[in-house]
Amino acid sequence: MLRKILKWIGGGIGVLVALILIFYFVMHIVVNNKRAKTYNVEVRMFDIPSDSASIAEGAHIYATKGCGDCHGEDLSGKIFLDDGMVGTIRAANLTSGKGGRPANYTDRDWIRAFRHGLRPDGKPLIIMPSYEYCKLADHDLGSLIAYCKSVPPVDAAPASIKLGPLGTVLSGLDKLPLIPADQINHLEKYPQKIKKSVSVEYGKYLTLSCTGCHKPDLKGGDNVIPGGTPVRDITASGNIGKWTLSQFMNVLRTGATPDGRQLKNEDMPWQMTKNYTDEELQALYLYLKTL
User: Fold this and answer.
1) Which residues contact 22 (CB under 8 A, 6 or more apart)?
2) Neighbouring C-beta atoms of residue 271, cutoff 10 Å
3) Can you name the CATH fold of 200-289?
4) Which of the listed CATH numbers 1.10.357, 1.10.760, 2.60.40, 3.40.50 matches domain 52-183?
5) Please, what is the end-to-end C-alpha distance for the chain in angstroms?
6) Angle between helical axes of 278-289 and 245-254 (0-180°, round to 10)
7) N or C: which end of the chain has fewer CB atoms below 10 A?
8) Domain definitions of the chain by residue range
9) How far, in Å, CA of 265 to CA of 68, rounded?
């Protein structure tokens, strides 16, 4: 009798292992198909400036959008995720140095990457949060591209991605934002310029940098990184409803909360938000208080 029970248990385990392997194989195929897909989109062109004022504005946008967290201060790219189960991901070298963008990389290619999350050949970029950058006004996106183009070339390793077992499964189930192009309305048109002012409207525009983690409704929830700290509600029903403007600005500039906590930058990127101007922080606070 015991032998039969052990045989049944062994058979059940064998079937379970086989099902897991089949499931993983299916997820692997799904992810590979997503990465191999070619998108046919019409890139709406606009002029990219080259003056020093636009480049300086682009540098500010680069700092306040957290681009350096993945691409580094010198834009040469770096490994920003290194986990055996999830995967190892190195961001692209955005400079014209060895391992970076080719000499024939055009303004159309820059706009295609930011607005559509696509490479010049129409294949999708990986991880790059183009679903946020696509919503930038033409003026701001043009300034950001102008800055990226102005940075001196740096030789560095090219972009690379190696998904682990968990990363493959999460990507296959759309629980990990692997393909930004799938989250973009490629037909949508965006404004030419947004007026910078201490206003609710400008504050709403600035939250484009917040929605990737705090969700489109800014109510927070599960972290997009497996095992990461749950993301806070930053509407008026969260701490924003309790903090004064000066407290809010201090949190985003230092990571120190009114109740004495020191936020980790990996949980709340205050090293990024400390670059916001007073005007930007005031506008952001105004908008968040309305939610």
Assistant:
1) none
2) 16
3) Cytochrome Bc1 Complex; Chain D, domain 2 (1.10.760)
4) 1.10.760
5) 65
6) 120
7) N
8) 52-183, 200-289
9) 13
Asked whether the beta carbons of 38 and 182 are under 8 A apart, the reply is no
How much is the pLDDT for 226? 64
Q: What is the mean pLDDT of residues 251-262?
A: 88
- Asked if residue 286 has pLDDT above 70, the reply is yes
Which residue's structure tokens are 């407290």? 247
Describe the strand order of the beta sheet including 160-163 as a list of residue ranges.
79-83, 87-90, 160-163
Average pLDDT over residues 123-152: 93
Q: CA 243 to CA 220: how far, in whole Å? A: 17
**Amino acid at residue number 200:** V
What digits encode the pLDDT tens for the residues 4-63?
Answer: 665 666 666 766 777 788 887 888 888 888 888 999 999 999 999 999 999 999 999 999
**Helices and strands (DSSP H and E) totals, the chain:** 12, 3
pLDDT recorded at residue 8: 64
Q: Which residue has the tokens 């968990």?
A: 166
Containing 80, the helix (H) or strand (E) segment is: strand 79-83
Q: 260: which 2 tokens?
A: 């004495």
- When the pLDDT of each residue in the chain is averaged and rounded to a whole number, the result is 87
**Which tokens belong to 114?**
């930011």
Backbone angles phi, psi at 13, to 5 degrees: -65, -40
Q: What would the pLDDT profile of 73-95 be if each residue is shown by its tens digit?
A: 999 988 888 888 888 888 899 99
Q: Alpha-carbon distance 272 to 70, whole Å?
A: 12
